[in-house]
Amino acid sequence: MRLPTPALLCLATAATAFACENPFGYSYIAETLKPGKYEFEQFVTGRFGKDLGAGYDARYRGFDLRSEIEYGLSPTEQVAIEFDQTYFDTADREGLRFRGVSVEYIKMLADPDKHAWGRAFYLELGYSQASLHDGHLRDRWTVESKYIFQHNFGENSPWMYVANVGMELLHTKGGEDAFELFVTQGIAYQLTKEWTVGLEAIGASEWIEGADFEESGVQVGPALNYRKENFSATFTVLAQLTGAPANKGSLNVSEYSPYEARLALSWEF
User: What pLDDT, on a 0 to 100 scale, did the predictor assign at position 59?
Assistant: First the structure.
């Protein structure tokens, strides 16, 4: 599952709080790009601490590279296409591997600048040919949908809250079908016109063949966003609090990383 992508922070003036964009690293917001506008985003996500056992054969490093281009279709709609690659450094695999491609659609249902709660619907169709966890090849198709909430706390408030509630269906050729339920939450505070700090929490659980529990995990961490004109940079660090089934202390390192760091760079034009 890709948990979800970061956007931009757009400020009208130094005195006006969140005008149109999102400083979080993983959670989506309800607002969309203006019609005819493009945004290019480049993500680098590092996953650390998944080593099981000891010594050279236990090492694991993974770096996910995602390139995404978004386009504003209308005042309430946007579409995007993204390409994913992963660099693996493990005992049995080293190098860059193309993982897959996906397309997404977002429909804003209520503008958070005009309503107490902004809302949006998100739909994504994806294909991947390599496992995110160990890089082995397989064919997987996914359908992900989520409902997005956003609350801006008033016109001049420096606070923003978002929540994403969603489900992902996964079909693996020659393997087991699965579905995943997830929730992300984030709260952010605007320090200055350029800088915003935030905190995110992500919880997810997966079942296979419709009923059998497979895994779950909870991750929490800070986010820091910088924006200057049409450029934005977001850095987020997540730590896994708990996971099941646990295989490294109280953590599940087969499906989730003990630590994860994401840098997102974006340009709007």
Answer: 72
C-beta of residue 262 within 8 angstroms of C-beta of residue 43: yes
Residue type for position 12? A
Residues of the chain with pLDDT under 70: 1-20, 51-58, 91
**C-alpha to C-alpha distance for 265 and 76, rounded to whole angstroms:** 24
* Cα–Cα dist 108/62, whole Å: 34
Token pair in block for residue 142: 């996914």
What is the predicted pLDDT for the residue at 6? 41
Quick check: pTM over 0.85?
Answer: yes
The three-point CA angle 55-1-262 to 5° equals 65
Sequence spans of domains, the chain: 38-268
- Residue 58 pLDDT: 63
Structure tokens given for 106: 């977002």
Whole-angstrom distance, CA of residue 176 vs CA of residue 172: 6
pLDDT for the residue 33: 94
Cα separation, 266 vs 69, whole angstroms: 10
Euclidean distance between CA atoms 25 and 22, whole angstroms: 9
Which tokens hold the place of 239? 């730590």
Residue among 59, 69, 124, 62 nearest 99 (CA): 62
* CATH architecture assigned to 38-268: Beta Barrel (2.40)
C-beta atoms surrounding 208 within 10 Å: 16
What is the model's pLDDT at position 3? 45
Cis peptide before 75 (omega within 30 of 0): no
Distances 86 to 29, 101, 127, 158, 189 between C-alpha atoms, Å: 26, 12, 14, 36, 32
Sequence-distant (6+) residues with CB within 8 A of 230 are: 267, 268, 269
